[in-house]
């Protein structure tokens, strides 16, 4: 049997076994609720929340700003962005991809959480038509308990 025929014959079953567990979107009931704190007038935060809801996340929204909660949760200011979330005991700061949030929940590293510092164009919520398809390179940072960080995933880097 030729490779193409074999791939077509095995189809989704082969693909399902080739993907890591965090890459397959779990049902919404299997994910903890994502609590999000944002400014009530921030459009990109609203777009990020909508993106996560389309991806199966249940979101509890607090439109009270995020600076105080970010400090309370222990995330250093150098990782700040326009919204702060909490899921499964982890802080998620800024425009973090759903895939990395699922990965974080599956791997359960010893960490404060994830951050996409600033507001990079092309990240979820910062990818609307107004940006004309522009995609700036950015990193999702795993923030460690001592406040240091390491690159968890890079996007749009050559």
TrEMBL record:
InterPro entries (alphabetical): DUF411 (IPR007332)
Pfam family, one: DUF411
Top-rank taxon, per record: Bacteria
Tagged with keyword Signal: yes
Keywords tagged on the record: Signal
Signal peptide: 1-23
Record-given protein name: Metal-binding protein
Species annotation: Hydrogenophaga taeniospiralis CCUG 15921
Lineage of origin: Bacteria, Pseudomonadati, Pseudomonadota, Betaproteobacteria, Burkholderiales
């Amino acid at each position: 049997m030729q490779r193409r025929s074999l791939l077509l014959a095995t189809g989704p079953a082969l693909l399902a076994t080739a993907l890591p567990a965090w890459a397959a979107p779990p049902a919404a009931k299997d994910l903890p609720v994502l609590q999000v704190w944002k400014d009530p007038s921030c459009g990109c935060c609203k777009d990020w929340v909508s993106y996560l809801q389309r991806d199966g996340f249940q979101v509890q929204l607090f439109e009270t700003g995020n600076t105080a909660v970010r400090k309370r949760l222990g995330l250093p200011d150098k990782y700040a962005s326009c919204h702060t979330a909490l899921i499964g005991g982890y802080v998620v700061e800024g425009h973090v991809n759903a895939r990395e949030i699922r990965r974080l929940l599956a791997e359960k590293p010893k960490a404060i959480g994830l951050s996409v510092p600033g507001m990079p164009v092309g990240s979820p919520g910062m990818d609307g038509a107004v940006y004309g398809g522009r995609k700036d390179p950015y990193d999702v940072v795993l923030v460690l308990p001592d406040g240091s960080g390491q690159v968890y995933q890079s996007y749009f880097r050559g």
